[in-house]
Design a protein that fits this description.
By secondary structure, the chain is an alpha/beta fold. It is built from ten helices and 13 strands. The radius of gyration is 18 Å and the shape is globular. The protein binds NADPH dihydro-nicotinamide-adenine-dinucleotide phosphate (NDP). The site of NADPH dihydro-nicotinamide-adenine-dinucleotide phosphate has 30 residues, from helix 1 and strand 5. NADPH dihydro-nicotinamide-adenine-dinucleotide phosphate (NDP) binds next to helix 1 and strand 5.
Length: about 280
Amino acid sequence: MVFGCSGQLGSYLVREFSNAGYKVVGTYNSNPIGSEKCIKINLKDKLMIEDLILKLKPDIIINAAAFTDVDACEVNRDECYQVNAEAVKRIVRASRVINSYLIHISTDYVFNGNNGYYKEDHLPDPVNFYGLSKLIGEAYALSYDMSAVIRTSGVFSSKKQNFPKLVVDSLAKGVKINATHEIYYSPIHALSLARCILKISDKKFYGLLHVAGERVSRYELALKIAELMGTDKELIIPVSQNQMSWKAKRPIDSSLDFSKAKTLIDFDFYSSSNNVKLLLQGL
Ligand code: NDP
């Protein structure tokens, strides 16, 4: 059962698990596109979450649903908390009853970004409400013995507007694009991440795991995209983070150390080149 089957990651999870022979059911909220196998549920409806899980009795539950708009979370705190934290509590409660294996997806934004290369045992300290809500969601998920919490970073794909896609679209049109050289993170394509989650699920990993891409600044990632597209790098303008119009504070370096994940996953899920190539294939 995939919560968030209409999202970037969720849609690839449905595809990858189906291709691997699993019978998959998903849930969406507002966007039924590409979600034929999905059931509509709003995660603010706590009772329905439990009813649905208890009715379907899935062996594996993956929660890829979240209120992911970081700036909107800063303003709509109640909704953000309901979806990113409270709903996880309900998923855990129901999972416990039927002994499902739960995989919950979390974020690099649980860290304050003062150091970078965060390992699983580094102390979280979120700098915005999104990060805080996700940290509470993690705590609920980890309170259940049969769970894995996967922290990731900068998930991208062609399915949604995000920074790498904006760079591709701008470069394709020959339009200049601002990219900060002061914010570092570990971006990964949603398909790479979904493939990792399938591996992790098959191995029945329990606990906390960082699954993300190589550490890059937004500027470096934009240069990599230009290089792989064979377009003019001069179109990418390095700017300071103060010039970005964000409502919520961002961690300066939220990059994740994924060395533990590399011991479980036997393919290259992390290199910027491989991840960007998936985007350039229209995935
Ligand atoms: P998307 O924003 O692409 O998708 C979010 C999913 O959550 C959609 O299926 C959406 O449904 C669903 N959803 C949102 N609100 C509700 C609600 N109230 N009730 C039910 N479903 C809801 O997310 P991604 O695929 O990018 O992210 C997947 C996971 O990875 C999330 O846990 C996120 O926190 C985490 N993550 C993402 C990062 C990123 O850069 N995107 C970075 C680090 C971690 P619908 O579209 O139908 O409304």
